[in-house]
Amino acid sequence: DGGITQSPKYLFRKEGQNVTLSCEQNLNHDAMYWYRQDPGQGLRLIYYSQIVNDFQKGDIAEGYSVSREKKESFPLTVTSAQKNPTAFYLCASSILGNQPQHFGDGTRLSIL
Amino acid sequence: KNEVEQSPQNLTAQEGEFITINCSYSVGISALHWLQQHPGGGIVSLFMLSSGKKKHGRLIATINIQEKHSSLHITASHPRDSAVYICAVYKGGSEKLVFGKGTKLTVNP
Fold it and tell me: In this structure, how many other beta carbons lie within 10 angstroms of the beta carbon of residue B38?
């Protein structure tokens, strides 16, 4: 079955450490997105990509980096510059053109 | 003020009740998306609509473009419908979704 796979489900980061969250899709979607969810807030866009080797900053890109070397993969790195990284991170993908987005099951990141 | 507002924030119902969740937005949109987030965190797409009404099983979504308002209805609610329901819009000319804060629904047996 086609879908989006995020790993790991839970991740712990030490102070000053970079961590990478994985997102893989086999839906053949061109567009991929990373969102952050905090309690009591709506999802906020971190980065998005509409084509391989290209990506754009979202509303809260500071302290994060991404790459899009393959259509299927859109990993997110939470760098040590992100001072408040504890959150739930969701990856999504869609066909281009305001189509429904399909979401992964998320990664919960916590600081040790 | 948020561009997408949902009401109510929390909703508790008895099994079998008819549920309505509201979404109002203040910007021009090309489409509106209703999503369901389960307690474990995973999100499922329910509907995407730009006009009129859509129905899937016990779920019905409507949108009034002139009034900038959408509703999600659940008929004959069941405890398995307990989840957070999220409204999101594609602003006109944008490939990015803007999300409401969600409505937490609890259906008691």
Answer: 13
